[in-house]
Amino acid sequence: AAKEGGRSTYRFYRWEMTRAVRDRLLLEQRMRQGLDMGHFEVWFQPRVDMRTRRIIGAEGLVRWRDPERGLISPVEFIPLAERSSLIHKLGDTVIRQTVAHADRWHAAGLPFGKLSINVATPQIERGDLASELQGILADTRVPPSALEIEVTESVFMADAERARTTLNGIRALGLSIAIDDFGTGYSSLAYLKTLPVNHLKIDRAFVRDLPDEANDAAIVRAIISMSRSLGFLVTAEGIETPAQFAFLENEGCQFGQGYLFYKPMPAAEFEVLLMEAAREAATAPAG
Ligand code: C2E
Ligand code: MG
Ligand code: MG
Ligand code: MG
């Protein structure tokens, strides 16, 4: 009987695995079709100067608008895309769309600051991202300094030298490079200083329990003060409450992003904010 039970458990396990594989292949296939049909769109979450609360840029965040299932979050499909070659096609779509928006806003004189593009580790590892960006930018009038690439610390875990070469190439074009979700990996600030990185984004996990959680407060304080003395720009992610904001502002954090200011929004909505900002700047009293 024990043997029988073991065998059916095994069979059940096999069946479960098969289903997981099938679901994954199905989702991949749907993603591929969605990409071909233009169902992926880049939204923007404004980033603000903590002192003035003015918009100084925005992060591009991809969404999948599936006709049957509605709007799908990137947490549902980025990990899957990263395990297949789809991440390259998706990444290309995101870059082209973001640059196209930047080109239009630049031509219209809208003060969008800097737009950042999230890039997955396999996109860095492939080695041709700098030349891809160069090719896309060549067809536009977007100043490269108006764009930023966000990578996570995991790019330095696999092949650090390869990553360094790719990032050097991107930096040489004039784009900024930010480390996303900083603090969750194992890279030290001293090590980052040897890389072509100029911006750190403190992970939301360290911001969430501020200002009460003493360990998080100490970590955030250390990241802000060290990155300031090393010359990095610093952004705190996931600011939701006035108390979090007050703590971060007081510690000298330069930039902030979070629901307290703005949630991610479609490009058209961000454009309206930019038009308002441009109008305000035009009507502001001189001096
Ligand atoms: P991320 O790059 O760290 O982006 C920040 C995430 O935090 C976004 O989630 C954003 O909507 C969310 N967020 C911002 N402020 C707040 C806040 O105050 N409270 C809370 N609870 N959340 C906040 P989203 O848009 O779901 O994106 C999740 C992740 O998916 C991103 O994390 C990034 O790792 C990945 N991702 C998004 N777009 C792309 C893309 O175009 N390419 C790649 N490779 N990854 C992307
Ligand atoms: Mg990001
Ligand atoms: Mg992040
Ligand atoms: Mg993240």
TrEMBL record:
Residues 24-278 form the EAL domain. This is EAL domain-containing protein. It comes from Pelomonas caseinilytica.
